Amino acid sequence: MGIVRKAEALSKAMELGLDLVEVSPNANPPVCRIINYGKYKYKQSKKAQKKHRVVQLKEIRVRPKIGEHDLMTKIKQARKFLARNDRVLVNMMFRGREKAHREVAEKVFEVFIKTLEDIAKVEPHSKSAGRSMGIILSPNRVR
């Protein structure tokens, strides 16, 4: 419409049954739009909801005597979770005399860490409680 006086713009908005909204008050002259303000606010809230994503903690359970192929399958699953920006808890479950051989668990964790070091970092505190031991991997960057 170009540069229009305020009274003309208000009358035009009322005629159309819409609202006169000031878009840029600091411009010279100030920029206004004739829009349905309720619809505009609704679209803005929907757009804000789409951008919001909750980062989840996904758990992957492994055993100390896991086979190499099974371990690679678990690593592939962890890579998929990390690509979606989720954190991954790798939980090692011990049974019976396996608890005495924690070094086997640490070797499995090292394979996890070395394989996924390109997209993940290990959070500093690992949890160890009774029959389980775990590490948390988080994505390097947020996309």
TrEMBL record:
Residues in Translation initiation factor 3 N-terminal domain copies: 1-50
Alphabetized InterPro entries for the sequence: T_IF-3_C_sf (IPR036788), T_IF-3_N_sf (IPR036787), Translation_initiation_fac_3 (IPR001288), Translation_initiation_fac_3_C (IPR019815), Translation_initiation_fac_3_N (IPR019814)
GO MF, one annotated term: translation initiation factor activity
Translation initiation factor 3 C-terminal domain boundaries: 55-140
Source domain of life: Bacteria
Keyword field: Initiation factor, Protein biosynthesis
Matching PANTHER family: TRANSLATION INITIATION FACTOR IF-3, TRANSLATION INITIATION FACTOR IF-3, MITOCHONDRIAL
Sequence similarity: Belongs to the IF-3 family.
Protein name in UniProt: Translation initiation factor IF-3
